[in-house]
Amino acid sequence: MDDIKILIVEDELLIATTLQRKLVKMGYSVVDIVSSGMKAIEVAIEKKPDLVLMDIVIKGDMNGIETASKLYDTTRIPVVFLTAYTDENTISKAEATGAYGYLIKPFQERELTTTIRMALKKHEETMKMEQLATTDSLTGIMNRRFFLQAIDKEIERTQRYGNRFSLIILDIDHFKKVNDTYGHSAGDEVIVSITQIVNKNLRKVDIFARYGGEEFIICLPETDYPNAMNVAERIRQNIEDNFIPYDDKKISCTVSIGVTNFHENGDTYDKIFQRADAALYLAKNQGRNQVVYQ
């Protein structure tokens, strides 16, 4: 067993410690035992277990069902419920949280093993499907569809708290020429290399996606105009200075970049994108390999 870590959320200590002994005997690692929903979320964020075993009835303001929903939204850690309740209403509420299974107390060791194994397998498959739906297959970064969801949340957060963010659109100059001269495999290598260069110039909080073809888009949370321009210029310069090896050749590339900021008073994603896209258009028309703000 590959050191699978489990968090137990149970407010009856005797039941919790008995369960812990069973899990350890079966080869699992128990990271902690907690008795409330808030503590469960706190420990899950800190210790990152692979699975949470949670009683539906626990201490605190949140019951197990409410905790499981918040926990999964926050951490994407799968939850298996432990419950003595068998009524249809409780079970349907538990299933509605997206829980990965439930065990009716008292349960046998074989039931526990099977439920844990099935929950972990189902979660792995779900994560693979989510990754396919949210990432670009060539570069591994966010795809356009998922970026649009992320930017909507960023706009909402910005409007709520009065922060600002910047948007960058980046396009590889003369990319068709790269494909025509060296082939599409070389074009793919250029896209991957540029993705890596851009990533090195971004923070963890920045939202970076392949928007389509040779075009990329970046959201810089809590970033004003001067700092956004600095980031964009640094990316442009790094790409210009870099030679991308392909077979026995070295391919040089440049990019054109459009930059804008979120404006208060009714700014929408469409308006923000149009400004950044217009700035990119100017950068292209003015000779490429430059950064333009609008």
Describe the structure.
- The structure is a single chain.
- The protein has 294 residues and is an alpha/beta fold.
- The protein folds into two domains: 5-132, Response regulator (Rossmann fold); 142-293, Alpha-Beta Plaits.
- It is built from ten helices and 13 strands.
- The protein has helices at residues 13-25, 37-47, 64-75, 88-96, 109-134, 144-161, 175-182, 184-200, 225-241, 269-285, and strands spanning 5-9, 29-34, 51-55, 79-83, 102-104, 142-143, 165-172, 207-212, 215-221, 243-246, 249-252, 255-261, 291-293.
- The strands form three sheets. The protein has a six-stranded mixed β-sheet with strand order 6-8-9-7-12-13, sandwiched between helices. A five-stranded parallel β-sheet has the order 2-1-3-4-5, sandwiched between helices.
- Helix 2 packs parallel to helix 3 (64-75).
- The longest helix has 26 residues, at 109-134.
- 33% of the residues are buried.
- The mean pLDDT is 92.
Residue-averaged pLDDT:
92
Give the overall shape. elongated
Class derived from helix and strand content: alpha/beta
**Residues in helix, %:** 40-55%
Count of helical regions: 10
- By DSSP, the count of extended strands is 13
Gap from first CA to last CA: 56 Å
The CATH superfamily label of the largest domain reads: Reverse transcriptase/Diguanylate cyclase domain
Read across the widest sheet, the strand sequence of neighbours is 6-8-9-7-12-13
CATH topology of the largest domain: Alpha-Beta Plaits
Count of separate structural domains: 2
Contiguous low-pLDDT stretches (5 residues minimum) are: none
Instruction: Please give the largest β-sheet.
Output: 6 strands, mixed
Q: Strand-and-helix sequence, N→C?
A: EHEHEHEHEHEHEHHEEHEEEHE
Classify the beta-strand content into a percent band: 15-25%
- The Cα radius of gyration reads 25 Å
Identify the CATH class of the largest domain: Alpha Beta
CATH architecture term of the largest domain: 2-Layer Sandwich
